[in-house]
Amino acid sequence: MYSMTNATAVPVARHGAPAVAAERGALPAGPVADADERTRDRVLAAVLEHGPVSAAELGDLLGFTPAAVRRHLDHLSRAGVIEVKRVAKSGSGAGRPARRYVLSSQGQSSLGNDYLDIAALALQQLQKVAGPDAVRAFAVERFAEMERRYAPEIDQAGPDITDRAKALADALTRDNFVASAASIEAKAPLPAALSSVQLCQGHCPIQQLAARFPVFCDVETEVFSRLVGVDVRRLSTLARGGHVCTTHIPTGRLPAGGPPTPPAALASLTEVNNHQQERP
After folding, report:
1. How far apart are CA 277 and CA 280, in angstroms?
2. Among candidates 124, 176, 154, 177, which has minimal Cα distance to 225?
3. Band of the pLDDT at 154, cuts 50, 70, 90?
4. Cβ contacts of 261 within 8 Å, gap of 6 or more
5. pTM tops 0.85, yes or no
6. Does the N-terminal or the C-terminal CB of the chain have fewer CB atoms within 10 Å?
7. Which helix H or strand E contains 248, and what residues bound it?
């Protein structure tokens, strides 16, 4: 099913996990149950696209009352497809961490991972027979096709790094990566040169495969660097336990392969955007 959030079609499985199906059985059949199901699909799609996201933000996005949003969030949480993440509030003041909702590992898996087990076994055999370089060569070939398709569209965006990053996010979203690109302005005491775009991917069709073979994430990052034209850094990945894949794209137009951004500076910038939060 395709649910619409912010005019973007987001593919969402019909909560295929057994836990959801079991809970659905407790609902009475009829128009009310169907309406609830469609609404939960919209909420799940919004959590996928915008997470980590608060209940209030979901209400604003979808036009629901806080009570309605929380009812559906509670249902999805009991079904195991979303979970609560505690996120420190922005600023230096103390206070209780904010409750944010993200897809759980079960929720990510329910979006579709057919044949990944077969692919993993095949790659394990390939690695055993031909070595790890053969697996990397396979990953390079897989992402080369993506690079060939994306390059003309991203080049049409022009030389501006921010525009190129947004064009990359659009292309990724069409390929079911549920991507977004947010401009992050560095504020004092950080130098303005550390301003960046944070490219986030809310879904990875090969997440379980990449968890077993991290080279897929490495090669994808190299492709992103070539496409936007600057040296980029991965801050988090779904395959390694992050709630989203987050790529730091500096907007200072540094040559690809140039001096890396200091890790401490990257850590400071990640606090600006909730999308970069890792699993606790």
Report:
1. 9
2. 154
3. very high
4. 194, 233, 248, 250
5. no
6. C
7. strand 245-250
DSSP string, 134-203: HHHHHHHHHHHHHHHHHHHHHHHT-S-HHHHHHHHHHHHHHTT--EEEEEE---TTS-GGG-EEEEEES-
Tell me what percent of the chain is helix, strand and coil, each rounded to the nearest 5: 50, 15, 30
Q: What is the pLDDT of residues 65-121, one digit of tens each?
A: 888 888 888 888 888 777 777 655 554 455 566 778 877 766 665 555 545 566 667
CA angle 82, 52, 211 (to 5 degrees): 70
Distance CA 75, CA 182 (A): 30
CA dihedral 50, 56, 60, 66 (to 10 degrees): 130
In whole angstroms, what is the distance from residue 58 CA to residue 146 CA? 32
Q: Give the C-alpha separation, 174 to 260, whole Å.
A: 30
Asked if 43 contacts 63 with a C-beta cutoff of 8 angstroms, the reply is no
Q: Measure Cα distances from 144 to 29, 151, 179 in Å.
A: 48, 10, 19
